[in-house]
Amino acid sequence: MTNLNLNTLKQRLISSEDFSETFNFFFQNFAENPAFYDRGKISTHDILAKVIQTTGKNFYGEDCEISNYRMTEIEEENFIHGTCFLDGNITLVMYFTDLDIGIASASMGGARFNFVSLKATVSVGSFQ
Questions:
Q1: pLDDT grade, residue 107 (50/70/90)?
Q2: Averaged confidence pLDDT in the chain
Q3: Nearest Cα to 8, choosing from 38, 34, 33, 28?
Q4: N or C: which end of the chain has fewer CB within 10 A?
Q5: Nearest Cα to 101, choosing from 76, 78, 124?
Q6: Does residue 41 surpass a pLDDT of 60?
Q7: Nearest 5°: CA angle at 117, between 124 and 53?
Q8: What does pTM read for this prediction?
Q9: How far is Cα 72 from Cα 88, in angstroms, rounded to an integer?
């Protein structure tokens, strides 16, 4: 796992129109690499958690509950990745903190997944 691969992932996230290709790149280059996971630390990134919660409400309704929130942050790369459940549906997440953008793959039941772009806009005292 190289910084070059993370830079490529970031560029794909910014410019790709097919989010499944971005997730495939992540899985091919990072998911089975123990050294990649060793670099990260458990993250409770509040802004990302709120963005994911809002995403869940958009997909599953206002009563959507977030559970098993497990994100890992590689702080020196400004990168967070992980999983959570939104209304019992697995959701995979990748997020770059320096750009406040990411993507999520939300289960729609069975093997069906929808991809969604994540973007946080931070303003004084709040975020959108």
A1: confident
A2: 87
A3: 28
A4: C
A5: 78
A6: yes
A7: 60
A8: 0.86
A9: 20
